Fold:
Amino acid sequence: MLKIAVDAMGGDRAPGAVVEGALLAANELGVEVVLVGQKEAVEQALRRCSASSPHVEVVPASETVAMDESPSTALRKKDSSMKVAFELMKRGAVQAVVSAGNSGAMMATGMFVMGNLPQVDRPAILVVIPTLGKGTVIIDAGANVDCKPRHLVQFGLMGSIYAERVLGIPRPRVGVLSNGEEEGKGNDLTRAASEQISSTSVNYIGYVEGRDICDGEVDVVVCDGFTGNVTLKTMEGVASFIVGVLKDAFHKSVWSRLGYLLSRRSLLQAYSRLDHTEHGGAPLLGLDGVAIIAHGGSGPKAIKNAVRVAKETVSHDVNRHIVEVLGKAAEAGGEQGEKLPRRIWQRIRSKIESLGEKPDPEGEGRESKSGGKG
Structure:
């Protein structure tokens, strides 16, 4: 049975909602859950829950990471619930980590404790957007504000693997998000990324626009974290607006209320497709381990589904496939002869960048990274 660590102190509604969601996961998903956090607070939350499970245990951690803390401040906390959870995975005591806490700290702590997979410069947040089909992947959805073309190439490869292995989409269609479908559109980053992705093994279909995300024309949308996060938050806002408009319309008159009652079941099914709590959490792909970032305001159902996403990512062996595919891509690109000191420096640079520093090695120019899905 898979064992998954849940940061019991992470999120706006922790520890109560997190503990309740972890219990739901343990009872419904066939996994063991390790709740990591301040022991007294976690045990008190467990007592308040009407349900119980023999597949839940508590591992104490004396410190918490606030939602507004910088990644560097979070890393200085040696006994935070987030760090202890990752250390459990590092030791092999658990197979995945789930947290609804500070996503920037989640990324920095994960990179510091676990490191990246081979050939991965930067982990990226992957979000599945509901569509009429199996869903559309957006990667990166907020981990890396400033990117280079090679980062987007890696995102595209990782997103394609996730869409194929977890979502069950054969040969996923991959596109780079831009302001138009024509080759001349975009900026320096998207043009260079598009050229490089087209030479990889993915099923690349070229530029895609924001309106293509939900229409079934693309399966994996590749972008930098700034663009991806803005896109995601805009879509969340539009979905909330539509739900609000419909609720207002159904309260206009007796006839509209009657219409709601007649179509209630279908409307609830439609709403569930738009409900972010049904999708749970976002995998942080590229990390040398499985980490799932849940929404900061997650309730019990969202936490349960975040654990489900962790279980699916582990069960489908996503990381092993990423290593294989990126390794082949590196060989095809002539990177197999890369010297060891260079590879070591790239790993160190990625960790420094996750803290907001700006190294400038070998005249490559400066770049920074900020974490967070928000």
